[in-house]
Amino acid sequence: MTGQILEEALAGLEAALDHGLRWSGLVTQLRDLGIDQVNYAVLDLQTGTREEAGVIQYSSMDPTWIGHYLDRRLDLHDPHVRFVRERGFNPYRFSAEMGERLEDRREADVIAQAAEAGLRSQISVVFPDLLGNPDPIGGMTLGSSLPEDEFVRRFAGQEMALLTIGTMFHERSLGEVRGNQHGAKALTPRERDCLTLLAQGKRTARIAERLKIADSTVELHLRNARRKLKAKTAAQAVARALLFGEIAL
Asked: Per residue in 46-104, pLDDT tens?
């Protein structure tokens, strides 16, 4: 059963043409398994320090609740986000009942509000950045409206499969999520080639020679890449292409 779940998840993730389709497919598959409350969040370190940065959030929960959560910056008092901010990495199980025992009443209140919106029980997985940063960058709640004891019984023996599905989604989505947040557009294969070689220290003439195109064509591709990535300089374009998962070194 576990192997079949993973095979179906991997096939769905690979078949999706973009992050939006990948997310909707993930939500549908998890809902079919009984995971009806799914949250994926990434710290947006462009907006502040690790302790204060906002979150880029995708959720299958009630949009009214998620809008309230983001508008009120409840991430600043969310114990799950705090775990990521404080560089915790281990996956864990959590429930609304456990939230009632939190010492910080603001955190307990966030958990109570989430439970009222439908999130009663969950398995949570924390994700690394994909650029060599040793600190975690985000996480996923694989949750349910089921009470804790029923949730534990239903998913006994499937925890690793669920955590793996979440991690596969993150690995394929983080760059695109960041790019979408900043209004970036997808690069063409040739634009990626030019930026990759530029990142490796090649100058325009060497890039042109390597790709067997004119110098002016290289410059055009680099200008287009900067525009699509909303970068002011070539260095910023390289940095954003790496950050958004467009190129790799």
From this structure: 889 999 999 999 999 999 999 999 999 999 999 999 999 999 999 999 999 999 999 99
Please indicate, yes or no, whether residues 79 and 16 belong to a single structural domain of this protein.
yes
Q: How far apart are CA 220 and CA 113, in angstroms?
A: 52
Looking at the chain, which runs of residues are DSSP E strands? 37-44, 54-59, 92-95, 121-128, 136-144
Q: Tell whether the model's pLDDT for residue 25 goes beyond 60.
A: yes
Do 157 and 131 meet the contact criterion of CB atoms below 8 Å apart?
no
Residue 72 lies in domain: 2-181
CATH of the domain at 235: 1.10.10.10
> Do 144 and 26 have their domain in common?
yes
pTM: 0.85
Please state, in angstroms and rounded to a whole number, the distance separating the CA atoms of residues 162 and 35: 9
- For the chain, the distance separating the N- and C-terminal CA atoms, rounded to the nearest angstrom, is 37
Whether residue 232 sits in one domain with residue 134 = no
